[in-house]
Amino acid sequence: QVQLVESGGGLVQAGGLLRLSCAASGRTFSTSTMAWFRQAPGKEREFVAAIIWRGGSTVYADSVKGRFAISGDSVKNTVYLQMNGLKPTDTAVYYCAAQRIGRTTYDYWGQGTQVTVSS
Q: Contact, 38 vs 95, CB < 8 A?
């Protein structure tokens, strides 16, 4: 099992920035990819960004490209999401997720952290 704990959410004005952290523990060696998802009120959960531990490749949703940056520290087993130029439409609960090696779905999820962007 892998446990994920997010932190760093909060209230920020439009144009501001936040950095989310996701600390992983447990069988972290079994994971290949870490990602951030978000879910706004009344909407489905959507993909935000992902990073592959081996090689550090990243991928982003079009809605956050150029504003958000995902990074990882394999020693600390922590993944970060730097969010710049925040917009009210970025308001959501942000979830960290981990994918096991050889899987195509995300097997482990954190409890989420609220990000609210005021206009």
A: yes
pLDDT value at position 7?
97
Contact between residue 4 and residue 28 where contact means Cβ atoms under 8 Å apart: no
C-alpha to C-alpha distance for 72 and 80, rounded to whole angstroms: 6
Q: With left for phi above 0 and alpha for psi between -120 and 50, is residue 55 left, alpha or beta?
A: left
Question: Measuring CA to CA, how many Å separate 54 from each of 5, 37, 68?
Answer: 21, 20, 21
Burial of 59 (0-12, 13-18, 19+ CB in 10 A): middle
Q: How far apart are CA 32 and CA 60, in angstroms?
A: 17
**CA 84 from centre of chain:** 14
Distance, CA of 33 to CA of 54 (rounded, Å): 8
- What is the average pLDDT across 61-86? 96
Q: Per-residue pLDDT for 52 more than 90?
A: yes
